[in-house]
Queue: 2 jobs
Job 1
Amino acid sequence: MACEIVVDGNKCLHCGICARDCMVKALVFNKTAGLPETVKDAGGICIGCQHCVAVCPSGALSVNGVGAADCPPLGKLPAPEEMKNLIRQRRSIRRFLPGEVDKAVLDELKDLLHWTPTGCNDHRLRFFVAGKAEVVAFKEVTDRWVFFLIKSGIMGLLLPRYRRYFDAILNGADVIYRNAPHLVIVMAPAKSPCCHTDQVIALTQFDLAAQSFGVGTCWCGFAEYAFRLIPKLRRMIGCPKGYRIGGAMLFGMPAVKYHRGTQPLEFEIADKIK
Ligand SMILES: Cc1cc2nc3c(=O)[nH]c(=O)nc-3n(C[C@H](O)[C@H](O)[C@H](O)COP(=O)(O)O)c2cc1C
């Protein structure tokens, strides 16, 4: 996408910080004029990250018509202790209240998805946020495949560890969607620079944001595979050709309360810092 950077010379403080912070050097500081200016082909070089807009003390820059007035003002960040609590107390929720999430909260969570950082600022992620009726429809389609795989014996060969669930699944138990009232699915162009990572970041941020609102979430690897493998499910969410399904997350108001965090097994963290 071609970008247009505009500098308002009347507002500029001539500090040059915008040019110094421009990662792709689409902006340079002209010392003679005392103003930042765009380089030749800046439109094609600029990745639209809006760092120049955010860093300018006087709000003198805009990118593609987005200027200081369009951006959220700085707010209070969570204190380290609050962030630690969020990370340690985030749990996978697998039992949900039947009702959907309050629309105002849902709108806030959807809006926050736009702040997902992506490699090269590639803004082509797509999301599908499903409500109760859609999740029920996804289950019906998924069940047809799963029932066939179980009854034909294929599932037993593919996932022998899960044999103990097969009878319950055939009797209607929802071990994939867990009767959740919502599911968010992320898609990205398979050829985007950081396709996989962008998608994981999007749902990781969604996860933490949702739990900060008291909304329960659960990463759903089973649903991710179902959407990758079942063409009808891809059609139901309008997954464009060339896009890869990168993750699925159940969410809704929790029907379970945890009384403490967990103490996970430690990962190996190599550290040579003295
Ligand atoms: C990529 C990924 C896929 C997962 N898929 C499922 C799933 O399909 N169903 C499920 O019930 N839990 C799923 N989980 C949840 C994990 O089982 C859970 O994160 C883990 O047991 C730790 O529990 P906690 O999230 O409460 O800390 C998944 C988690 C991740 C990160």
Job 2
Amino acid sequence: MRQVQDQASKLRHAAATTTNGFRTIAITSGKGGVGKTSLAVNLGLLMAGNGQRVALLDGDMGLANVDVLLGMTPKFTLRHVVEGQKELTEIMLRGPNGLYVIPASRGVEAMAHLPVAGRARLLGRLEQLEGLIDILLIDTAAGISPNVLSLILAADEAIVVTVPEPTAITDAYAIIKVLSRHRADLRAGILMNMVEGVSQAEEVFDQLRRIIRHFLKLEVRFTGHVLRDECVGRAVCEQKPFSVCFPYARASRSLHELAKSLAAPSQFAPHPEPFWGRMIHLAAQL
Ligand SMILES: Nc1ncnc2c1ncn2[C@@H]1O[C@H](COP(=O)(O)OP(=O)(O)OP(=O)(O)O)[C@@H](O)[C@H]1O
Ligand SMILES: [Mg+2]
């Protein structure tokens, strides 16, 4: 027991490398449907299971999915926070392994296109998470809407998910291009999903990295890979996370590796400005 507590406290210390007291990681993609939400939910659960205090914010504010994958039915969502009816801490739910879930609303178009003031208000509230969590994972919508861009740019680092198909790869390049225009020191990693093996993942990553290096003069990292696995779809249908339903499935095992590597101190230097400060600053620009 003592050993587990020591391990948890070490992990917390390792993760707390940002000026917020918690590290923010945005999980995003250029193309839709590449597995962001599935991976964000299961990664959050595995990291929480490893002893880290993790919150998962559903940043797909028009078409929320995190609650669906966890089989949750939230009464209050980010919409109530934006409208000033609830505090962020009042809408948070507790999922398996103690994962904090910050749910979004579904089918509310205004939430997908928040005005500057709404974005600033919402993200300003994240200050309330200080002391409560070590890591904030943000599952974003696909694409380059101001909502999405401001979330990614304000985070300490971005994980761009792609699959090894030309359309997804070109869209991953496109979103990194847009992001790098706003932030030359973008801290981005590529997560290859639905691959057949590590060699395919590394091969595709290498090509993408070369193009990004050549045209954008930017270095991206290889965050990891998750194998294509029919268990992922089966778990979605049961509204249960695949890492819980099928802990020994191919996809779960790949994600375990990723959860462990993300628990190590960030490869990136801490960001000098806290998340909400950056967010408010950026919200005004986009
Ligand atoms: N490793 C995998 N193996 C097999 N299927 C997968 C894998 N990862 C995700 N999927 C499937 O891909 C589909 C899309 O997943 P998901 O909804 O997580 O993507 P998304 O990027 O969040 O989509 P959106 O852009 O619409 O938010 C789902 O049907 C899911 O089951
Ligand atoms: Mg999604």
